[in-house]
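Hey all, sorry for the wall of text incoming. These are the two entities for the joint prediction.
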Amino acid sequence: MLASLSADDAEWAAAERPLAALRAVSTAQVRAAVRACAELGVPVVPRGAGTGLSGGANATEGCLVLDLSRMDRVLEIDAENLVAVVQPGVVNDDLKKAVAEHGLWYPPDPASAPWSTIGGNVATNAGGLCCLKYGVTRDYVLGLKAVVGGPAGEYGTAVRLGRRTTKGVSGYDLASLFVGSEGTLGVVTEVTLRLRPARRDVPHTVVGAFDSLVAAGEAVALCTRRGLAPAALELLDRACLEAVEEWKHLGLEPEAAALLLARLDAPGQAGTEEAEAVARAFAESGARWAERSTDAVEAEALFEARRLAYPALERLGPVLTEDVCVPRSAVPAMLARTEETGRRHGVRIATIAHAGDGNLHPLLITPPGDEAARRAAQAAFEELLAQAVALGGTVTGEHGVGLLKRGGMRAELGPEVCAMQEAVKRTLDPLGLFNPGKVVGAPGS
Amino acid sequence: MLASLSADDAEWAAAERPLAALRAVSTAQVRAAVRACAELGVPVVPRGAGTGLSGGANATEGCLVLDLSRMDRVLEIDAENLVAVVQPGVVNDDLKKAVAEHGLWYPPDPASAPWSTIGGNVATNAGGLCCLKYGVTRDYVLGLKAVVGGPAGEYGTAVRLGRRTTKGVSGYDLASLFVGSEGTLGVVTEVTLRLRPARRDVPHTVVGAFDSLVAAGEAVALCTRRGLAPAALELLDRACLEAVEEWKHLGLEPEAAALLLARLDAPGQAGTEEAEAVARAFAESGARWAERSTDAVEAEALFEARRLAYPALERLGPVLTEDVCVPRSAVPAMLARTEETGRRHGVRIATIAHAGDGNLHPLLITPPGDEAARRAAQAAFEELLAQAVALGGTVTGEHGVGLLKRGGMRAELGPEVCAMQEAVKRTLDPLGLFNPGKVVGAPGS
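and here's what came out:
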């Protein structure tokens, strides 16, 4: 039991032995646990569903694992104000379903949405497919309740950060500071979220097959230049297509170098026109073929294939997941460097990308039990982080720093900004109680 | 000269005597000035155009006023990546014009856009009309260059916070922390902004006249319930209409208790349908009349009247500007309490509101030179802050805390969260050099 709560889905991130685990059911329990841990000097490692990909929820030696997955109630859906208040253990898709009954929509849609929790989404500032048009988790967090220590009072104090209104600038934006902080500043026990009205029309899907990654990258750039605003613009390279096809036989055209999938949701006729414009942009960029799917079942199958890519690749061996994000115009260059890096290190790399956002997930696959291959993959992993930074990008678009990207983050931000980050951590968590070693911790610590 | 640089547009916020002013032209100058001020113990008060309404740019005794209005270059417009990089002194409307030449759009549109600078907009997290649909300044700030002190190194160190990519979660979101911090954490000398493609269609305008503020508030609620998403939804009460009409004779229907102005920009036929749906919602909520303006000149005149409201009221005497924001559903209650408060204190209050956001600007007008009226207005001002908080709102939606809302902010956030705010300030500015006394300073200090 303890072992299953000691790690998230990150390959090769170190998980140590917890002292105990607590499945909290209330803020009061979290408060009492944090207070007791502070007295005993026991670190607190919060976790949700454990679907993280950076080791952010991995146990540290002698810690209390604070499992929040049972705090899974939607406390309020306020349709008048387009607001929902939820506990951190609510699963993303469950929230979507609950608000849909009120004609509302919670947009952030990480690929883990069927399993991952809002608390985990907040911890990593999760993105997904439709953040291209609709923003990431931080754009939907109005306020938080968090159990903290330090300047607010003794460890175990509960505070409300942020607000419930659509606008507000009353003091520093501590709610945004907590979003993406991976449990290192306190334990989030309630989240106030902004909602949108549900979309009226079924979105359009456009698919294009390309003979080269560069041509696919150019199609993405052309869409941007023409002011087209897809709700999603996803890329799967040949290695992904082959893995899905081997497994599911969907007839996906695995001989293409890359598939682009676009989803367009402008209302009414404007949506049709936008879909046609995207199909044209694909064709003009040299697509083997590009078409607007007029069949909702077929369109859903295409996005299903995208969702299947990760599990399809996991069948082939442990997968080390990159999450770099580069300026959109650098997508072709990053794709080229990824191919070259894989070749040079002898590592099989398949790439899924939120191409419209410049957010690429090169997936490094290693044969199980092959230590040399594992070392090669880790070398390639670090090199890809450095390449993203060199292209003006970041080491993590939406998965978080956790344990695996601490070195990359330091290289990206530089010593001055890292010193600011560490100072903020020390100030808000002077005992170093909350998820120690993650995000701002020294690599290898 | 020094006197003109010692205060912003906030009525009755205390401005003290600066030691000197510097019109900086480069980050290097700002760095040198901050370094020298740290050595000499001279506080640094940054300012842009001085259009602030909370006293955030007011001089403190013996400070250096650091005027950034000459750092007014648009450094880069990157159409491939929908990004602009600007100096802080660029005027909001000038940026809009510059990016429009590339088919791009920078949405945040505070009423001060013809004069206010991006640096000031960042300092207060400025909103405006179209943030209802398109978000506030923070939603457009990807990254910042700032001159800081403390953990990053000696005072005068320049750091880059945030990023240039659309997504990123590499460490705590210090860029968002600086947005809305009113120059209290460092001096922003460069801003990297997200842009959008320009809108293709001319937006539709719908206007409705109401016999009561409550009916107007219900019309706003009905639009929300029906999932309508105006790009702007503004309210002017009778006192505003009268003041504009007395001055400009626009034929505005000053006998109505309130006018609602909506702007709809869904593309193509969807925009027409949305405009008609809003007009219907107005009518069903009891509007005396409601219609979709089919005449672009007339529509522009209506929004011009909204922009004229503030100067029209200033003709009548000093104006003390509220900026409360409440949950949308509380707009009718807040309007009713505003009227009642004005009556009870004998203060003339006119209200402009970003009604769709719940962001209300009750404007308290006092006859010039009347000390008793001034005291009554200040009492009413503080009472309205408390009422907004009691309704689940905030004391400032988009103008910032500055000097005038420090007491209100403390009441809103409570001592624990204020202690966190102060700890963050002490950590990032241990000398208390940057704009001391603003935001987190004790009221009356």
